[in-house]
């Protein structure tokens, strides 16, 4: 039987035994188990699902040491980062418990009858209900937070959907072990995991799978999006794909502290060997900042990337860019010589050259590479920024004196970004009510949705309206007297009533 | 130049002059005008957009007599229905004005900083912003309410999106005149109309169009959905397609008043010559109810359908069903002999035969045709109902004594329907906060969204999060002190704060 083998990126050597690939029959069995579990899981009172999420979080926390060691061997991301990431993952599970207990996520809406308007209105009660079994494609770069028990899984389980995860091949052992812990806590059929590319295809095509979440490359995401969209019954596919994350530093902000700014920029660029979807790959800066940026990149160390394919793609992509003559390679950092390590790279192009070759120069090179685009007057940026491909974040650095200019730059960026950051850095994504981790294509396949934060639960729920329905047959969320005490909209007015 | 010719369905004769088809250059000019108008229209304070919507409604109301006469000549739907439908359309525009003034549609969300959690949380402020120019495909069967100034247009304009409508060829004159009125009220570039099939294709493919709404057939909607999904940058496509609208009448409810029930059923079935997406095409009933149903259908009159294609499709579809032997034709009503008239038809099949040939017997025959599926025990329905194709509505008729059974039937229906109706009829769709007019494929292309009601505005907006953003550069909805006085979520808590 073929299997998925994990490797140590520091050495390129195998780690642990291969995990067997899941057969089509195996995928079918899990999807049918999800289908069978859906009625009871989805009708469990939300506060009881919240308790299950809390229990999953506790069980993962209890195994933190072994999970982190396993993940470090397969990803080389280091124990401190992985310890933090696992805590972020369990906090995320608990946030969704809070979301369920707060109760407004179902958008309970009650309208009284009005026979005197056109058209007449009967008694209407609307709420959101889960879609059914969800497929989740785990990412390479977050072995916990965007993986087996990550945000997609947490939000879908919270919504009341069974989940089947397609494990990422870069960390099969970590995925297997995380899945074992989740399975030990949730009811039978509510969670499953599959391994292997063919199993992923079978998952997206399975009639019992009602929606899919994905974090990964634009190429892989597009292929699966096309598969989901071309089903006899198309299903929602939420892919978080590529992102160049433009950062604009205005002249006064750049002049105020060039070395400090450059150090922060390179810190964000090289964090996790640049393997973040929010990695700042495109910097618009005055020419005068380039020496400090080049110095900082030259002094920075790279490290091992998560797998050989990504390491090769980074090298060939950045070497191709250097050879193309479209941008100048102005600095390279260092890297260990062993395993799948790569060094940071900084390219430079003037704004006019960037604008001429925008499509080519906004291809993402996943890893610690950036292009600095030099400009003279911030006003020159305004016609160029809206032409950028859709991206998760856009950042503006401005001095107190530059707010007007920052506002114009932000308005130019806004149509193409999901999150606007002021005097900060795009890496580090908070898990909160107000987070939006999304954006126009190719940042995601659907600009309405986020894969991080409380509202990511929306991806897995659809409305149902009960018209003139007897109170005793309504879900508790919609009954007279608001027995659950949740926020509801009654005749158009939001409140706890 | 080729043109789109309107016809009188009562006679099959041309009405008015043909309306010219829009060239690709014409579509491009409108899309570019929408793109140019987007920044100002989207940044207009919501209450000012509400005033524009009210003004559009007033202008349409002021032309009611001429619009209704024009629409009646092209659709044969009759002045009373069309007068009501126009009023529904203008009330719908005003509802979105109310939605904008209430303010919670932007989902303003404010999180304070918390550096002590993992991951740390910066100050985050999230709200929904419009996507850009929207394409709207008008429906044949609602020349006002799902057409040029219908729900898709009203909700997209409310959101801050310019709109380009693809007119339905069944009422080109009505569409042209309605568009002229809308254009006279809204700012330049915010609204446009195109005619002709090729113009519709160009609209869906245009890079400046960011989302599409559609109401129509499953075949046409699927073709356009595939076009939108296969763009280099896929865009959201919201299609409301076919629907069989199952109705279950439980034994005691059927026995209580067979003739009254049958009369109401046939009234809903033949309303508007059955040309509603909520037409009750599938009735699950005890065998004992069949004579009353057959009598009522035999005594019912049909009428002219909206166009020759639909009339032909209804005849060939129902005649093919009768010839197939899969269901028995048990009654036919009458119809005028002129124009594109069709008669109501009722078929009958026992539940076992229905379950065997479910796919074939749930094909929609748009028009006044229904299949009555006879059953003995309501429990027999429970495994069959979840196998129905996705549908806009599901209806249960139950006596007081039958609530338990009604609850089980409703749970079986719920996964495949968007709206559950108790002791009522699916035709007549209220425009309200609590309405959901949607459902799983093929009812719609996306089960998360509705094309009727306040929440239909969601289709045209996407979140943006401002991180650590200066208050003076934030949109008013997100500023300190809540200057607009709208409902917001602050640190997780909903309220006007």
From TrEMBL, chains A, B:
Keyword terms, alphabetized: Oxidoreductase
Segments for region (Disordered): 1-23
InterPro entries: Ald_DH/histidinol_DH, Ald_DH_C, Ald_DH_N, Aldehyde_DH_dom, Aldehyde_DH_Superfamily, ALDH_KGSADH
Annotated signal sequence range: none
Domain Aldehyde dehydrogenase stretches: 7-438
Designated name of the protein: Aldehyde dehydrogenase (NADP(+))
Lineage, top ranks: Bacteria, Bacillati, Actinomycetota, Actinomycetes, Pseudonocardiales
């Amino acid at each position: 039987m073929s299997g998925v083998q994990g490797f140590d990126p520091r050495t390129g050597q195998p780690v642990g035994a291969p995990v067997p690939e899941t057969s089509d029959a195996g995928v079918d069995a899990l999807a049918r188990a999800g289908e069978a579990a859906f009625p009871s899981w989805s009708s469990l009172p939300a506060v009881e699902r919240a308790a299950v999420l809390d229990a999953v979080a506790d069980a993962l926390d209890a195994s933190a040491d072994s999970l982190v060691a396993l993940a470090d061997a397969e990803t080389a991301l280091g124990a401190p980062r992985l310890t933090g990431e696992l805590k972020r993952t369990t906090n995320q599970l608990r946030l969704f418990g809070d979301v369920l207990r707060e109760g407004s996520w179902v958008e309970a809406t009650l309208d009284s009858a009005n026979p005197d308007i056109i058209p007449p209105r009967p008694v209407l009660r609307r709420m959101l209900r889960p879609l059914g079994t969800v497929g989740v494609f785990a990412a390479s770069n977050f072995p916990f937070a965007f993986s087996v028990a990550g945000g997609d899984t947490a939000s879908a389980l919270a919504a009341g959907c069974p989940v089947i995860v397609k494990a990422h091949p870069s960390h099969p052992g970590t995925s297997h072990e995380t899945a074992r812990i989740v399975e030990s806590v949730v009811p039978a059929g509510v969670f499953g995991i599959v391994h292997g590319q063919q199993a992923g295809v079978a998952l997206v095509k399975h009639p019992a799978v009602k929606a899919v979440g994905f974090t990964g490359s634009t190429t892989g995401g597009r292929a699966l999006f096309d598969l989901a969209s071309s089903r006899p019954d198309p299903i929602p596919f939420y892919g978080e794909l590529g992102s160049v994350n433009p950062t604009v530093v205005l002249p006064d902000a750049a002049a105020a502290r060039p070395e400090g700014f450059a150090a922060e920029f390179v810190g964000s660029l090289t964090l996790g060997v640049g393997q973040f979807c929010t990695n700042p790959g495109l910097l618009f800066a005055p020419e005068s900042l380039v020496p400090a940026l080049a110095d900082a990149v030259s002094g920075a160390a790279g490290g091992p990337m998560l797998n050989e394919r990504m390491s090769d793609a980074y090298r060939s992509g950045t070497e191709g860019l250097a050879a193309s003559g479209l941008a100048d390679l102005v600095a390279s950092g260092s890297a260990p010589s062993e395993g799948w390590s790569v060094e940071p790279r900084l390219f430079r192009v003037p704004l006019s050259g960037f604008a001429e070759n925008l499509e080519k120069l906004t291809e993402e090179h996943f890893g610690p590479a950036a292009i600095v685009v030099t400009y003279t007057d911030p006003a020159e940026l305004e016609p160029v920024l809206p032409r950028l491909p859709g991206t998760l974040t856009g950042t503006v650095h401005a001095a107190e004196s530059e707010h007007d200019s920052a506002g114009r730059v932000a308005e130019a960026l806004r149509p193409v970004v999901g999150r606007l950051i002021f005097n900060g850095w795009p890496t580090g994504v908070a898990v909160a009510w107000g987070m939006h981790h999304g954006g126009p294509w190719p940042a995601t396949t659907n600009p309405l949705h986020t894969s991080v934060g409380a509202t990511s639960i929306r991806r897995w729920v659809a409305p149902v309206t009960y018209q003139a329905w007897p109170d005793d047959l309504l879900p508790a969320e919609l009954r007279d007297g608001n027995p659950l005490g949740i926020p509801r909209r009654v005749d158009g007015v939001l409140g706890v009533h």
